[in-house]
Amino acid sequence: MVPCGSLQLAHRLPHEIRHSSKPYPFCHQTTDSIPRLFACSSSSTASTTISTTITLGGGGVRKRIRNRKLNPGEKDGIVEEMRFVAMRLRTTAPSASDVDEGADESAASTDATWFPTVEGFLHYLVDSKLVFHTLERIVEDSTDVAYVYFRRTGLERSGSLAKDLEWFQRQGHAIPQPSSPGISYASHLADLAEKSAPSFLCHFYNIYFAHVNGGCEISKQVCEKLLLERNLEFYNWEGDAHKLLRNVRENLNKLSEHWPRIEKNKCLREAAKSFKLSGQIVRLIIL
């Protein structure tokens, strides 16, 4: 478990959070069997080469053609491919532009400077509600048959967030309007849903994955530091959230078997973007 007061959370995206074997007091989920995020499930990441053999017309000599190499994790489905993308992001050195963009957060790299605020946490909850509501509305209202498999998964969060925000309002806190990170992400999701179901669904999975696997740790640290006396609905699920997430993962892998490679590659690029956009919303906590 990341100790209370740790600064690592302020600089980490949801997919980078380590987990404890102890249940979190602010969450109705235990993590006894949760692996570390993106831990390798295989001892080898070597790519596999696909080869085909064709016979030339007229009884000509057979010619062997070497096709592209498989992406890491490709044999196990699109979700495993996205996991390798996340692993590469963790080990890739930041560019100069990334350093500039993250300059403001660098000051929050010590225990003395990282501290959540109620105002920042409310911005985080409001922007998260906008993103989750956008996901749920799109899959529920769309006529695209691909989205049917992701309706009413049991992972939906917008209703729970609405209850939490109502509680904060009753405590006398002003509820802010959505801010730029949440608005930008919701707009990007709506645009993707019209253009590319595979790309949208990869965001769909990554958002829920990050929340299920990192949400309890965020809740624990924030609630302890802000002395909140509420077990937030945002971090509680009816049933086992990890089983619900596994159902989504299996449906996504099955559906992706019918996607052309070009769509899968777009999906992997969007996975990287998902981690960045989600991280911007998490950082609102320390406003």
UniProtKB/TrEMBL annotation:
It is found in: Plastid, Chloroplast. GO terms for cellular component: chloroplast. Belongs to the heme oxygenase family. GO terms for molecular function: heme oxygenase (decyclizing) activity. This is Inactive heme oxygenase 2, chloroplastic. InterPro entries: Haem_Oase, Haem_Oase-like, Haem_Oase-like_multi-hlx, Haem_Oase_decyc_pln. The keyword rRNA processing does not apply. It comes from Platanthera zijinensis. It comes from the Eukaryota.
